Amino acid sequence: MVEEGAYWLAWAQISGIGPVLLRRLQQHFGTLATAWNATKVQLGEVEGFGFQTLEKVVQQRSRLHPEELFTKHQQENSHFWTPADTDYPRLLLETPSPPPILYYRGEVELQENLGQKPMVGIVGTRQPSEYGIRWTRQISTALAKNGFTVVSGMAEGIDTESHIAAIKAGGRTIAVLGTGVDVIYPHKNRDLYKQILTAGLVVSEYPTKTPPDRTHFPRRNRIIAGLSRAILVMEAPLKSGALITATYANEFGRDVYALPGRLDDHPSQGCLKLLSQGASFILKELDELLTMLGAIPQIDGVEASTAPKQLMPTLSPELQTVMNAFSCDALPFDLIVQQTGMAAGLVSGALLQLELMDLVSQLPGMRYQKS
After folding, report:
1. What domains sit in the chain, N to C, each tagged with a CATH number?
2. Closest CA to 204 of 189, 182, 188
3. Spatial distance between the Cα atoms of 63 and 356, rounded to a whole number of angstroms
4. Which of 34, 20, 24, 200 is nearest to 117 (CA)?
5. What is the CA radius of gyration of the chain?
6. Which of 32, 68, 99, 310 keeps 20 to 30 A from 140, CA to CA?
7. Cβ distance 197 to 91 under 8 Å?
8. What percent of the chain has pLDDT over 70?
9. Integer Cα distance of 27 and 132 in angstroms
10. Are 226 and 91 in contact (CB under 8 A)?
């Protein structure tokens, strides 16, 4: 749907309007095209649109022409998705802050975008030990050979090792960049970059020619977490971008695994912290890890499509709003509140009713999933 995609692009050009506010706009108005034509008073009804933001919208919106902007952007950036596109990665779209524009280069595999092929993120320090490198290679190889797509950030260290191992094993890998998809960083990974283009994808929320910026890399970590069904943290000190990725993964209801290390090893301190907070252990028996990862339900898989469909009972508007927030993944309570825009008390009551109707089940840690 080119028209709606043009409005995603246009809204993204307005300063102060980020992915979270764009999501709220879409939820409030139904489409961003409708939001584009909304009055100042109507926009003021959306949470987060204060006086200064409204002034920016009024001033900048009048100077932008969505269709013309979209056409010009296509000429400068040949491959990108907006949330209006059916090919936009499904799991990423279900997060609270999907990138309004996701640029890509390489070989697209539709099963990945639809969530029918499991993708696992592997992250860690840029200065791994021999121990971290060895286990990253072993696990990435095992994942690739068992049909998983390995997702990482093409940074030095653990990221690089995971991409290389997946490619050598004949698998697919996706690199999420903090630059434009045509900018290789670090430059020493130029050969790896070329290999990824033939064995997977590079993706980014930044347009072509965007140089590296230290503020970009923490933000791109939410995309790694959003694309992945689970995040594996191989080695990470306490101040590590890998822990940011793990935090996003927890917020998105993804499973987090960490490689245990010695108490006095600096590169293991972040992993030990994650384990103390409830992350799952990566143990020596990789078959057990593969079994747990493989048990994560697929979206619209063959098994699901051949199963008899149960008729959904007619629900009240509040209950339907809560049900619409669910994907196939378990969601934490706070994220359900955020996605529905309802008060926490109303969400809690709705979840209880849905549990009694056997439509939703509660998991440990205040997480919920469709039954």
Report:
1. 2-76 (1.10.150.20), 102-294 (3.40.50.450), 310-370 (1.10.10.10)
2. 182
3. 52
4. 200
5. 21
6. 99
7. no
8. 93
9. 43
10. yes
